[in-house]
Design goal:
With 219 residues, this protein is an all-alpha fold. Helix content is 67%, strand content 0%. It is elongated and about 60 Å long.
Length: 219
C-alpha cells in the first residue's frame, strides 16, 4: 500500500475502515490526525454513491468535533461541507458552514487554509435559496470582495456571473448587464493561463449559463 493510500480511499467497507482507523490511531499529533480525516472525508464526498457520501459527511463532522483547534483542517472542512450541501441544494446547511469560514475571515483578517472565496460562495447560496430578504447582504459580500485576488479566469467568470444574476434579481438592470457582458467576454478566453498547467483557470461555462447571461444583456 502506498504511504498515503490509506487516507485516500474512494470507497468504504469494514476492512478499509479498520485499516484507516488503525493507521489514524497510530499517526502522530492532532495536526496530522485532523488532516488525514479531512482528506479521507473529501475523497468519499466525491463518490457518486450516497451511502459513501454519508460516511464522508460523518468523517468531516468528526474532524470538526474532535479537532476544533486545528483550524488549518477544520476551516477547509467547513468549506468542503458547504460546497457539498450547496451542490445538493441544502442551502440552510451550506449557509451555516460557509458562515463559520466568513466569520473567521472577519475575526482573523486571513483567508489562508481555504479557497479564499467563501464569502462569494455564501452569496451564491443566498441567491440560490432565493432569499430576497438577504440579497442585499449577498450583494455586499460580492462588492466588498477583494477582486484583485482573483487570479484565474474561471474565478473571474464566476464572480461576474454571480453578480450579473444577483443584480438581475435585485432589479439593478444596468449593473446586471455590465457584469453579464463581462462574464460573456471572459468566457471567450480559451487559451490556458499557464503553459505547464493547461487546465488551470479554463472556463467551462454551460450553454444554460451563457443563455442566461445573454438574456440579462438583452433586457
Amino acid at each position: 500500500m502506498a504511504t498515503d493510500e490509506w487516507f485516500r480511499n474512494t470507497t468504504w467497507n469494514t476492512h478499509i475502515e479498520a485499516e484507516f482507523e488503525g493507521r489514524l490511531k497510530r499517526s502522530r499529533g492532532a495536526f496530522h490526525k485532523a488532516q488525514y480525516l479531512r482528506i479521507q472525508a473529501s475523497y468519499l464526498l466525491e463518490s457518486m454513491d450516497k451511502s459513501i457520501q454519508s460516511i464522508g459527511l460523518r468523517l468531516m463532522e468528526r474532524l470538526i468535533n474532535d479537532f476544533p483547534t486545528e483550524e488549518f483542517s477544520t476551516l477547509f472542512g467547513h468549506e468542503q461541507l458547504g460546497d457539498y450541501y450547496l451542490k445538493n441544494s441544502d442551502f440552510e446547511r451550506a449557509e451555516a458552514h460557509f458562515r463559520v469560514v466568513t466569520n473567521h475571515y472577519k475575526s482573523k483578517q486571513s483567508r489562508s487554509g481555504t479557497s479564499a472565496m467563501v464569502d462569494l460562495k455564501l452569496a451564491e447560496t443566498l441567491l440560490a435559496a432565493n432569499r430576497s430578504d438577504q440579497f442585499e447582504e449577498a450583494y455586499n459580500l460580492c462588492k466588498d470582495y477583494p477582486i484583485n485576488e482573483l487570479r484565474f479566469n474561471s474565478d473571474k467568470f464566476y464572480y461576474a456571473e454571480l453578480l450579473a444574476q444577483l443584480c438581475d434579481k435585485m432589479g439593478k438592470k444596468e449593473e446586471a448587464k455590465e457584469y453579464a457582458k463581462a462574464a460573456i467576454e471572459i468566457s471567450k478566453i480559451t487559451e490556458p493561463q499557464f503553459n505547464r498547467h493547461k487546465t488551470v483557470g479554463i472556463i467551462n461555462a454551460t450553454n444554460n449559463q451563457l443563455q442566461t447571461l445573454e438574456r440579462i444583456v438583452r433586457k
